[in-house]
TrEMBL record, chains A, B:
Function: Supplies octaprenyl diphosphate, the precursor for the side chain of the isoprenoid quinones ubiquinone and menaquinone.
One annotated GO biological process: isoprenoid biosynthetic process
Lineage, highest ranks first: Bacteria, Pseudomonadati, Pseudomonadota, Alphaproteobacteria, Rhodobacterales
Reaction catalysed by this enzyme: 5 isopentenyl diphosphate + (2E,6E)-farnesyl diphosphate = all-trans-octaprenyl diphosphate + 5 diphosphate
Repeat found in the keyword field: no
Similarity comment text for this entry: Belongs to the FPP/GGPP synthase family.
Example of a GO MF term: all-trans-octaprenyl-diphosphate synthase activity
EC number in record: 2.5.1.90
Protein name per Swiss-Prot or TrEMBL: Octaprenyl diphosphate synthase
SUPFAM superfamilies for the chain: Terpenoid synthases
InterPro entries: Isoprenoid_synthase_dom_sf, Polyprenyl_synt, Polyprenyl_synt_CS
Amino acid sequence: MMDSILSPTPLDRLAAELGSDMEAVSTLIRKRMVSRHAPRIPEVTAHLVEAGGKRLRPMLTLAAARICGYEGPWHVHLAATVEFIHTATLLHDDVVDESAQRRGRPTANLLWDNKSSVLVGDYLFARSFQLMVEPGNLRVLGILSNAAATIAEGEVLQLSAARDLATGEDTYLQIVRGKTAALFSAATESGAVIAGAPEDHARALFEYGDALGIAFQIADDLLDYQGNSSATGKNIGDDFRDRKLTLPLIKAIAAASPEERSFWKRVIETSRQEEGDIDTALALMERHGALAATREDALRWAERARDALRTLPDHPVRHILHDLADYVVARLL
Amino acid sequence: MMDSILSPTPLDRLAAELGSDMEAVSTLIRKRMVSRHAPRIPEVTAHLVEAGGKRLRPMLTLAAARICGYEGPWHVHLAATVEFIHTATLLHDDVVDESAQRRGRPTANLLWDNKSSVLVGDYLFARSFQLMVEPGNLRVLGILSNAAATIAEGEVLQLSAARDLATGEDTYLQIVRGKTAALFSAATESGAVIAGAPEDHARALFEYGDALGIAFQIADDLLDYQGNSSATGKNIGDDFRDRKLTLPLIKAIAAASPEERSFWKRVIETSRQEEGDIDTALALMERHGALAATREDALRWAERARDALRTLPDHPVRHILHDLADYVVARLL
């Protein structure tokens, strides 16, 4: 909050720079999320759309197209596509996670029911595919449909890795690429491709989105252990109580003594968690430097994101993306 | 069963005629349903794929392409796309319906969990979009992505119309178009379009698929009240116990006396069903001729399907499709 009073955040600057394009995206989203036949659909989607996420992903598409000098109309469709895919996955995630809160508000599965969340999520997926077809660009279609498959694969992998102490950093990275980075990188790459950017620029923007998404997700997973709930909308240790194997936990478990290991086995594999277990978990993470090492990883991915931008044309939006990479991990400093 | 000993059914004949193409479809489906990273995916999909549906929908795509003289390779991708969309919707349907059986076997949501069904369904949707992009035909992409949206819309509509006595035949038809006919007509139309068929042939094959799908679904809904469970894999009155407003019920309710209406209100709106209610329901349907009228509707849609074929080139496969339209309602005679 202080941030936005003292100086605009990179997100604010992006929003200002892309203002009229984002207006067009919002209009398109509102137009396409309705359904002539099924009034339940806009009820559920409006709830999510008006909860007002930061719309980071569609802004990435618009930003990439802008940097690459695009002047056509189709980046708006691609940005809306990306937001629809994101919203659909949120609906399904909340069913799978049995979440009760999202962005500080009750989730759709709680307000309506799981059935509505599953089916309205399917509707948004289908709508996203209709949207992505309209620009008539087959390469963009390949990028976005591949991203959708990677996302779903990541979600399934996360489900089967859940509560499995053997989950290593490689698997974690694959999950993070699926659940977060795949859509970030598809957002930036598709913006470049619709603009007809040269191959190396499209590649650089893909790399930027990939690294930014990974930095963003690692930061999110770290904040679950050291954030404060008013900033994140989540409670400290939610992932721990859900027995999710995120990076801080994976690092602590890798370094665990036999005695510590049996603690982890009990709290993660068997669900017999007790009062005070979260404090023990935090102490063990601290002992092995797991939180600090996780923070280092996040910062390293943010640096990779910044580096990826180097070969791109000099452009005000490029500078904002540069600062955005720092911003997603600044919460950790 | 007797049927297939005495004379081949239209389905058997289609399968024989399209044998090598269907082999290619099966191979492609097996290849694309795996996931390098998430072994849970093939477990769940193999369970469904090997349960061995009749593969009616992919055969419709192949049949349409064949009638239109197609000699390229891409109808196989489109047929696999259609089957993936179908399988994904089955997975999500079983979650929404809380089903325990599908094709006489336990459902995936029962064998694994709802979470796996939701996420693996998403994966198959995404895979279907990857597959449909590959032929590089934008018109086919429009047809199939529109169908996916219509399917999802129909499912949501079905959910909000559930247990609502005010549901009329118009809404029922919209639901049926969504949950069944949209994929049938997309299957046939996309087969025609990939073959570069003239507009009126593509239109005729769309109409055929639409009418066939509606006839098929009405027959299915009728059999729920008059079939036998060994033939359908369902128990008599399952829809009644689920309080689903299908055509026989809608017709009986439209003709109900005030006294009958309060019976319907109790059993459909309030869930207070008692032993013997199904017999009362059947007697009321019989009294108002609801079952006979439903049968008439199914036969009329089958006739429309046959009629749609008239303008198509004379072809052995066209004759099989003609007989197939009779076959999907023959179970009712």
